Amino acid sequence: MEEHGSILWRGMAPMPHVETPLAGDVAQVQQALWLPFFERGGGETNTRAALNLLHTAVFTASRGDRLGVPNRAVVITDGQSNVQQDRTLTEAAEARRSGVELFVVGVGEDVNVAELHGIASTPGSEHVLMMRSTSMSSAVANTLLDRLCR
Q: For the whole model, what pTM was predicted?
């Protein structure tokens, strides 16, 4: 299956990211979407660090970035950044300025929608998805893949 060069990304400390190349496999995307539901524990969420890595270390020529190929990332979060929270939206703006198109999946019941929209590229209606429970993962994965692969 052809890889689309997209990355699923989430920001939870101590490791701010999980990288998953996408190849249009709905089951693969569903699995990545489930991670936040099973790894809760009141820990730290450092979305700023994950966003920083996107434009400083992931989408780089040494990692295979190519001109003419869109740089798209998916941030999976509850929007409750609690490490350098004041810099999360600034870092998202920097990632977008560097050419990264940001999709955001809000997971869980207690989601900070303002932070999700502050991170996402515009329009929010195309770049922000909500997944309140794992039962929504198939629909969200299909919608996400449709939008990423356009």
A: 0.78
